[in-house]
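ERR on first pass: missing label on line 2. Operator R.T. fixed the label and resubmitted. Corrected input:
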Amino acid sequence: MQASEAKAIEVTDLTVAYQDQPVLWDIDLDVPPSVLLAIVGPNGAGKTTLIKAILGLVRPAAGNVLIYGKPYEAQRRIVGYVPQRGSVDWDFPTNVLDVVMMGRYGALGWVRRPGKQERELAMHALEKVGMDAYTNRQISQLSGGQQQRVFLARALVQDATIYLMDEPFQGVDATTERAIVTLLQEFREKGKTVVVVHHDLQTVTDYFDWVMLLNIRRIASGPVDETFTPENLRTTYGGRVAFITK
Amino acid sequence: MIQDHLDIQLIAIVTAVACALPGVFLVLRRMTLMSDAISHAILPGIVIAFFLTESLSSPLLILAAAGTGVLTVVFVELLQRTKLVKEDAAIGLTFPALFSIGVILISRFAGNVHLDMDAVLLGELAYAHLNRLEVFGYNLGPVSLYVMGTILLLNLAFILLFYKELKLSTFDASLAAALGFAPTLIHYGLMTLVSVTTVGAFDAVGSILVVALIAGPPATAYLITNRLSLMLTLSAVIGSVNAVSGYWLAYLFDVSIAGSIATMTLLMFGLVFLVVPSRGLIAIARRRTRQRWEFAQTMLVIHLFNHEGLPEAEAESEIAHLHEHLRWDPAFATQVVKYALNNRYVSQEETLLTLTERGRSVAQQALVQ
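pass 2 clean. output:
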């Protein structure tokens, strides 16, 4: 247990179930600081649930999650979350800047309203993701890639140490995907830890240095070059994956 | 008499604004049906509290009814959580059950007291100002104005204080939870307010029409604005306009005030739906027409462009025969030519059409795309 502070995220014996249907079975996962970790696995493997369990959004039936050695509730400020783009209503009456400022709400705490400082941080983040021309754009008028950039800017202003992202590449164009990857790698260079639910097996080795293979159970996790093997992939996807490693 | 007019309108306005404010969040959370459920299901709470206090304006009545309202939300969510029924079915099962308990209680025990079904269903705004608050013999105005005024202030305070929390948990509940803002707590806070508001409004507009006050103005405001703060303000303004115009409509035709207000709510929505810029039906129809002409014009310039400088060019650009080449209705072809001439995309030399510089570049652009 003494070593646990050296781990950014430590998941032990985590089981999540809906009634008697396990969604995650006894997951162990250690994520060291400043890695870019991809969680991959087939549909229904429990990837999103794992992220939500780490964030305390779903109650585990068993097991524990520690963020730098402490429970999530004590570490909210250092954890940033990017939910799936489709999980929110983009017809909500608000604009780009306002959504990005939501990333500061956690630091503001209850009741206090965002002000000039939050606005500046949000502007800066929007510049960073190349969306500064869209500050006052109604969010329903954004393309999928732009929506994802807005979400990323919102995560940026959270100024977290650990980021959990649920399919940030889903439905984005090639330029946006590039931009996101560059940003994530920048995060890692600054010592931040990024955990990404990822779908595209072809890009895992290019984008990430760590990988977790998940299919209700943890199949494997570790550095990409050791873990991302055809054998592990076969176990994860039940032999249904036609995948050529380099 | 003038005082009566004023009192009733004031009650109507305060009630409308008090309903519209939490209504904005219900509309955005797609929960307006829940407010309908609450407004019906609070009936047993009201009846039981009425038996205990024998008064329709007791604070206990409001508390009991609000309790039943929150209970409705809990029941609906419990049913939903079994995953055996969906939300709409859960609402449809819960509130008639509770409402019918209220109806049975009234018909069995309240036959001789002042709690009749018409008042419960439709409210009695016309008499709402008769019950007046008197302190030491001074007439301080209608009781329902004080009740609704307090509820309005309560709603206003809640929304102003927790504006940011309400916004975040409505837009992105999972981020709200991850940041520690307890969206469930906010959800039940809002539902409690909706319940309290509904009970208060009950007296004035009854259980059926209160949902019109809650859902109507926000839905109308949502057509007009893209900003939450403006949506709240507009909902309040629209609610007030509906209330006042509804009142005078009722006065003019000597009909139910609550019914008239609800009718005005619908008319107002319909009007805005038609005329609002960029999203209204009229704007959409005009945009479609314009797009049709623009597209036809683009087809015309591309046609001229494709044949420009070729031997057949003259035959292809003869105004009188254009419709034959393009297989257009002759009248339509004449219109399109006129449209393009107006825009200076083409120019006319005797019976021939030629592209202008502008028309040529438009054609080139369209072809590149």
